[in-house]
Automatic annotation (TrEMBL):
Catalyzes the transfer of the enolpyruvyl moiety of phosphoenolpyruvate (PEP) to the 5-hydroxyl of shikimate-3-phosphate (S3P) to produce enolpyruvyl shikimate-3-phosphate and inorganic phosphate. It comes from Cyanobacterium aponinum (strain PCC 10605). Phosphoenolpyruvate binds at residues 32, 105, 134, 181, 360, 402. NCBIfam families: aroA. It is found in: Cytoplasm. This is 3-phosphoshikimate 1-carboxyvinyltransferase. The keyword Amino-acid biosynthesis applies. GO terms for biological process: amino acid biosynthetic process; aromatic amino acid family biosynthetic process; chorismate biosynthetic process.
Length: 442
């Protein structure tokens, strides 16, 4: 039995017995990263952008509201086909009120690159309680090097932030972290500056911005040997049709669910398999999961496929180094997979998880621990010994969408009742998650 109940602003998801089997075809919602970028590039391009398959989650809604407040015309987010009429690169209007990025780090960080370059205009930017604690200095510092004027709480590290738009100058930024949000912020600011801006990162992060900027007419050079991207400033963008593939980070929940639940077979259609995002497939393959990639194709500049998963006996693995940015959002659900794998799984080099929507290392260790998992928090990762049966418990999402969904998949395979508090967080990236869970549950 799966039951979602709402009281006041909070929801509880109750999963009250183990799944005997999971069966069916699943269509997952649009990719969150690509949805944000399509809205933003559409908003600053000239002419019309048509977005097909947009994620109708809370995070893209935050992006849409911010850019509507700055003059972009964006049709209602009540259908997956959304039309955007852009204002042109430097045409964002000074908003009448504070821009609210909600729970979305991508909205805030990418948008800051654009706002910093709107010469002579003032912007204030905030977010929810989680976003207000997340580090913004990682984008503010390089933007300041470009000449940006940004003030913020906590010595200019946290939102609420105030931005006074300037004419920015290009830089070569060597980012200390492999972060697509940092890279994209600087590339967007670079697009607004005269000359060439380069970002070099220590390992390759997701490249959706590069692909989409190129499709909109941006001029980019990519040096794969050094993980560097250069953008030529001042190139006008032209509205496009963007087809958003399904989000592999959302598919990850079903890949793990299908692998760890007895007698299961799931087909997940139309999943984006951009190589900068497929660390989850490699990790699950290392763990012995029975996953088949079928119907590989390319849709609007992004590779897409259908994924089939069947019940498999998993074994432990070690994950560290360059694969981490390629599965950064999938570590909570991989921790669940590790609880059902033979041996001890070690995840390292993942300290970035501490500054996501929640401290995902601490929260997964605590909440899976309540369910009986043998899980230890490391300074930069997790150590999980599989094979101890999980039991139902009362757990909390810490308002983090990926924590809520990971715990739900653990609960499907736990003995007894699990109650997930603050389950409303799921609607950030996957509003139809519980409906799909009910459809495939036997
Ligand atoms: C994202 C990049 C990643 C990821 C986040 C979305 C993006 O964050 O965790 O969910 O859309 O660029 P970082 O850039 O902080 O690693």
């Amino acid at each position: 039995m799966i039951n979602l109940t709402h009281n006041q602003n909070s929801s509880q998801l109750v999963i009250s017995h183990q799944a005997q089997s999971l069966q069916g075809n699943i269509t997952i919602p649009g990719d969150k990263s690509i949805s944000h970028r399509a809205l933003m590039l559409g908003a600053i391009a000239s002419g019309e952008t048509i977005i097909k398959g947009l994620l109708l989650g809370e995070d893209p809604r935050s992006t849409a509201k911010c850019f509507q407040a700055m003059g972009a015309k964006i049709s209602e987010l009540n259908s997956e086909e959304v039309r955007v009429i852009g204002v042109g690169e430097k045409g964002l209007q000074e908003p009448f009120d504070v821009l609210d990025a909600g729970n979305s780090g991508t909205t805030m960080r990418l948008m800051l690159g654009l706002l910093a370059a709107q010469s002579g205009k003032f912007f204030s930017v905030t977010g929810d309680d989680s976003l207000k604690t997340r580090p913004m200095s990682r984008v503010i510092k390089p933007l300041q090097e470009m000449g940006a004027i940004i003030y913020g709480r906590n010595n200019h590290q946290n939102a609420p932030l105030a931005v006074v738009g300037q004419n920015l100058k290009p830089i070569h930024y060597h980012s200390p972290i492999a972060s697509a949000q940092v890279k994209s912020c600087i590339l967007l600011a670079g697009l607004m500056s005269e000359g060439k801006t380069t970002v070099t990162e220590p390992a390759l992060s997701r490249d959706h911005s590069e692909r989409m900027l190129h499709a909109f007419g941006g001029k980019l050079e990519i040096d794969q040997d050094t993980n560097s991207v250069t953008i030529e400033g001042g190139t006008p963008l032209q509205g496009q049709t963007v087809i958003v593939p399904g989000d592999i980070s959302s598919a990850a929940f079903w890949l793990v669910a299908g692998a760890i639940t007895p007698d299961s077979e799931l087909t997940i259609t139309n999943v984006g398999i951009n190589p900068t995002r497929t660390g989850i497939l490699e990790a699950l393959e290392m763990m012995g999961a029975d996953i088949t990639i079928i119907n590989e194709r390319e849709t609007a500049g992004e590779p897409v496929a259908d994924l089939q998963v069947k019940t498999s006996q998993l074994k432990a693995c070690t994950l560290s180094g360059a694969i981490i940015p390629r599965l950064i959002d999938e570590i909570p659900i991989l921790a669940v997979a590790a609880c059902f794998a033979e041996g001890t799984t070690i995840i390292k080099d993942a300290e970035e998880l501490r500054v996501k929507e929640s401290d995902r290392l601490a929260v997964m260790a605590l909440e899976l621990g309540k369910m009986g998992a043998k899980i230890t928090e490391l300074p930069d990762g997790l150590e999980i010994t599989g094979g101890n049966p999980l039991r139902g418990a009362e757990v909390d999402s810490y308002t983090d969408h990926r924590i809520a969904m990971s715990l739900a998949i653990a609960a499907l395979n736990a003995k007894g009742n699990t109650t997930i508090n603050r389950a409303e967080a799921i609607s950030i990236s996957y509003p139809t998650f519980v409906d799909t869970l009910k459809e495939i549950f036997n």
